Amino acid sequence: MEEIRFCNQQVVWQEVPNETSLAFFITGCSLGCKGCHSVESWKRGSGQILTEIYLAEQLKKYQGLISCVLFMGGEWLPEKLLSLLKIAREQGLVTCLYTGLEKTELDPRLLPELTYLKTGRWIAERGGLNSLTTNQRFVDLRTGECLNGLFVKR
């Protein structure tokens, strides 16, 4: 079975409003959106394997410093992503998935393990979450509320 892999790991503050997130940029994205800022994530099989043990070690390392675990992709390996989401939730952290897919295209088993979900392919002309014309949506799955407004500078 294919392993879930990542090409970058960072602590980030802007991707999930009001959360300090440990973000993993998962490799293997097949969408290939024109203008993607993470083309290094396209190559399937590249990067470091993200095991449950590695994730648990990172969560221990950042304990008290992060409030969220963010996966930039990985939905194409739902079984693997599901086990990682459960580990984060067991540690009392909120979870988020950034995907270019729509919510209806995701494996439904992922949704109960997610707190936040960013959906929609990158379309340069429409912009990202900080654009009023974006096709992307950032939703708090606990409430169903679209939080796009938190990304737009006024």
Describe the structure.
The chain is of the alpha/beta class. It has one domain. It is 15% helix and 23% strand. The chain has two helices and eight strands. Strands 3-1-2-4-5-6-7-8 form an eight-stranded mixed sheet. A hairpin with a 4-residue loop joins strand 7 (137-140) and strand 8 (145-146). The longest helix has 13 residues, at 78-90.
Question: Tags for this entry?
Answer:
globular; 154 residues; eight-stranded mixed beta sheet
Brief overview:
It is an enzyme of class 1 (oxidoreductase). It contains 2 helices and 8 strands; from the N terminus they run E-E-E-H-E-H-E-E-E-E.
Secondary-structure map:
Layout: E1 5-12, E2 21-26, E3 48-49, H1 52-61, E4 68-72, H2 78-90, E5 94-98, E6 116-119, E7 137-140, E8 145-146
Parallel strand pairs: 2-4, 4-5, 5-6
Antiparallel strand pairs: 1-2, 1-3, 6-7, 7-8
Helix pairs in contact: 1-2
User: Secondary-structure element sequence?
Assistant: EEEHEHEEEE
Strand content: 15-25%
- Give start-end ranges of low-pLDDT stretches: none
Helix content: 10-25%
Most strands sheet:
8 strands, mixed
Q: How are strands sequenced across the largest beta sheet?
A: 3-1-2-4-5-6-7-8
- Taken together, the total number of domains comes to 1
Number of strands: 8
Total DSSP helices: 2
